[in-house]
Amino acid sequence: MKRADFEKKNEPHWVELEEAVKTLDKRRAPNEVARIPQLFRQICGDLALAQHRMYGRKLCARLNSIVISMWGHLHASINRGGSGMALFFGRTFPEAVRAESRVVWLCFAMFWLPFLAFIATAYFEPKWIYAALPIEKQIEMEASYGKGGMSEYIHEKFGNSFAAMGFYIMNNVTIAFRSFACGVFFGVGAIYGLGYQGVILGAMFGYVHANGNLHRLYTFCASHSSFEILGIILCGAAGTVIGLALVKPGRLLRKDALVACGRRALPILIGGSLMVALAAPIEGFWSPSSVPAGVKHTVGILGWLAFGAYFMFVGRGRNEA
Amino acid sequence: MDAPQKLDTLQTIELAEGVQVHLHPAGPAPRAIALMVDMLLAGLMLIGFCLFFLFIGRAIGFGVSIGFVLLAAFAIYWGYFMLYEVLRRGRTPGKKWMGLRVVRTSGAPVGWGAAFLRNLVRFADMMPLLPQWQLAWLVFGFYLFGVTSCLCTRRFQRLGDLVADTLVIYDKPQVEFSAVNNVTVPAAPPPFVLTREEQVAFIQFVERAPTWSDSRRQELVQPLAEILGVEGRPGVVRAMEIGTWLRDS
To answer: Do B78 and A182 touch (CB under 8 A)?
Structure first.
């Protein structure tokens, strides 16, 4: 068949499909949905024929474009909504964390070791703390948690809980996202980011240990600590998983390992950043509130225990396909 | 169609329907322009939000409106690209303007996961950063890693694309067919049997000839001078005749 005859014979189908693609691009339903699968298969055949018979780039490019667009519409993923969320938190997230437990523990240590070390130096060699903590931070800590400290400085700065929550979301989630992103540099960025956070937070806490009002500090931090710290550690761990794909790709090509590890890291990243985001309203509203200290401490300890149990036990066993 | 694949950047993908389609990845330059348009738009959005919350600050209290501004800045900075790429099927306004689209390497549209990954890793791509341009927590950068990664990969993927398994393609075919293409050359059969690749070469010569200068056309048919028996302008005409015959019969 000559090209002209081929075009003449099939033109109506192509035009119909082109119209359907245009309608779908505008997010409206096309007129005859039922005809689309048949037309699509037909145009796939036409494209293959046109390529094989070398009907020229112009025709092939046009058919190619229609096929790609229509294929995209046919294969668009469907949002599962609520049940998808339940599946994520009930299974996907804790399972993904368990699957990467070694990396998570490494990141856990990378945060907590410098943190605890700096608290220890408060009792032996406080000079380290003054060296690590920028002077503005020392002033802030002194104002908030010093012997005569009044109130938490972020709240002081913004004057109300809602703005403080906005600040916490922006600041903390950005830190979490960044430590994930920098993980792509062979994992160094993520581990460094966590270590840095450990040093700075450890020095801040150490400062208060050395010369401040410990009770006020721990009462403020207790409730949201588990969400925030674990969330940041998990985001860093997700970044490290991606970085390790480049360091230790196993039997895959580095580029394929990167994609595979990206898939493994994604649930950890989503869950971790949601935890950090959830910490913000707690930190903004609950933590500075006048709830008794005992309640806040209990909530804080329960939070850590609950997350430990969640990551250890939830989502095990049921192996539905 | 093997020979042309070695020369151009087209990515061949075989669909489940049993047909091969070609994706045309876009290089760093059009993507950079699209990015600048997007950044401009995101900046305008942010300014708009700021003015809006400043305006209603009288009613809800300025402290609260600062909170909203911070949330809006966070949402725009990290969410602008992701939301557009998912909800507009891979096209942010800047990409739409430049005729680009983000797709998975399989050609399918990007989902939430892929869009989330590629736009978080953007932070690594944009290094080295510009600290003095930063606006509170919003930093911008030179995209040195992104550009380097684009230039080192066959599909022009930045680091975020590599992690999320996506690529940026031209949305519409980028083939230029000028009116000169319709100049009719009498079709004439080739003097001998051609292989498939050779036939493709002749057909593509006919299609692309209008986009080249006359001397370039003559240069391209020069190696065929001995076989065709003519060179220079007559050689070009002869090659066009063969190509037209192959294409239309």
So the answer is: no
C-alpha gyration radius of chain B: 25
Q: Which of B137, B164, B203 sits opposite A171 (nearest CB)?
A: B137
Tokens of B48: 């708009």
What is the rounded distance in angstroms from the CA atom of residue A87 to the CA atom of residue A211? 47
Whether residue B21 and residue A162 make contact (CB cut-off 8 A), yes or no, is: no
For residue A75 the two structure tokens come to 């294969």
Best probe of the A interface among B121, B150, B177, B182, by most A CBs < 10 A, is: B121
Rounded-to-integer distance, Cα A270 and Cα A238, Å: 9
DSSP A308: H
**Measured between alpha carbons, how far is B28 from B159 in angstroms, rounded to an integer?**
13
If you search the block for the tokens 């066009």, which residue do you land on? Answer: B240
> Which 42-61 residues of chain A touch chain B by CB within 8 A?
44-45, 47-48, 51, 54-58, 61
pLDDT at B2 over 60: no
What average pLDDT does chain A have? Answer: 85
Please report the sign of the dihedral spanned by the C-alpha atoms of residue B134, residue B140, residue B142, residue B146.
positive
Instruction: Return the structure tokens found at A116.
Output: 């605890």
DSSP, residue by residue, B208-241: HGGGS-HHHHHHHHGGGHHHHS--HHHHHHHHHH
* Amino acid sitting at position A15: V
Answer yes or no: do A166 and B107 touch at CB < 8 A: no
Overall average pLDDT of the B147-156 stretch: 90
Q: Please, how many CA atoms are within 13 Å of residue A145, restricted to the half-sphere of its CB?
A: 23
Q: Which of residues 96-155 of A touch B (CB under 8 A)?
A: none
- CB contact set of A158 (below 8 Å; sequence gap of 6+): A164, A167, B63, B66, B67
pLDDT for res A273: 92
Q: Enter the tokens of residue A304.
A: 């850590």
